[in-house]
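Collaborator request, handled under Task 6.
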Amino acid sequence: MSPAPPAPAAPEPVSVVGIGADGWDGLPAASRHALRTAEVLIGGARQLALLPEECAGARVPWPSPLRPAVPGLLAAHAGRRICVLASGDPMFYGIGRTLTEVLSEQEQEQEQEREQEPAAADGPPGPRLRILPHPSSVSYACARLGWPLEDTEVVTLVGRPTDNLARALYDGHRLLVLSAGAGTPAEVAALLRDRGFGPTRMRVLEQLGGPRERTAEGTADGWDAPPADPLNVIALDCRRAPGTPPLSTVPGLPDAAYEHDGQLTKRHVRAATLAALAPAPGELLWDIGGGSGSIAVEWLRAHRTCRAIGVERDAVRAERIGRNARALGVPALRVVHGSAPAALDGLPTPDAVFIGGGLTAPGLLAACWAALPAGGRIVANTVTLESEALLADCHRRYGGELFRLAVSHAVPVGGFTGWRQAMPVTQWSAVKPPAAVPSPSALPQETEQP
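Structure tokens returned to the collaborator:
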């Protein structure tokens, strides 16, 4: 009987080499060896130009858009030693994350093939990553500025709206902004002036770690520097202009922070609502009957990885939600113009649902409860007796908490001061158990429209 053929060799890992503005001279021995021995070198044109002729592999510039091209490029050069070039630390807002996600998806597909057709999928798994990092531009910037890295917040504007920066503006706060290009400093200065942070000190650090390193300095109010080198980082010592109202990091922003037509969850009720919704990093909220979008906006401000979808049937209000999101630094808020529950079809599964309007729409409560996974939260607010009856029935069937919020404000009464009570708000909140009983179809229904 002839011996079994040897198992095929595992493919070479994909090497990812971080490189800085100092080019080849700034690379350690392990990174140089990976680049010298690579058969294929993939990177941006600027990065590839930093390599000497002794790196003889085929040079392949990244196409645009980049991410959709990654699987095809890796497949086209399968079986060869691939080395990918990255700016600085590949795992800090770099190509390392994209490669990790793409290769992880490929490994999952291969594993599924092995389970379904073991013979057809015979062979070693696909390539893994070998990361060889370089100091990031943020590490260089903190070293130049004398800022502790752990106390410095970083905001990237690479491929992201400048409005993202607004969420991080607090008096006395230190920020490093990763620029999208030469024009980013001027865009940042304009945003700072618009948001009431014109006195902020700006320093633009260009070509960090390279022979052409330089720094430009000024304030946002007086920023008139020419376009920077495309490779730059912006350091901000945030200073709020006199008269600019402060915005807190916790829920309950002043009502005046929002553009609205009266359809706004007021400040104190909003704080209680967000506490019940309990936002956590990476979680998704459905904000139904968004009005001015205040609940979704403050959900997103809770953590930079939070996600939210606002559903609003009025076109004017839907546009207003988008403006509020941009003004308060969370432009990633997705706004769906339509009436729930029909507008909920096809939306990704939420971790939490807030219903601020339209409670009596037929099928809405049932659709929201059915969409929630086990452990998901639902919160509904109302000021009408009709909707209050629905929430009381939900509380009886599904448990949770049912309470009424009454807020009074001190107002002048002649020459004295008295209390004026706002309309009380009834709130029901619940967490969906692992096995919800009764079924969502048993939720109370109303036939009249709100």
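The cover message to the collaborator said: "The longest helix spans residues 95-116. Residues 218 and 360 are 56 Å apart (CA to CA). Please let us know whether this matches your experimental observations."
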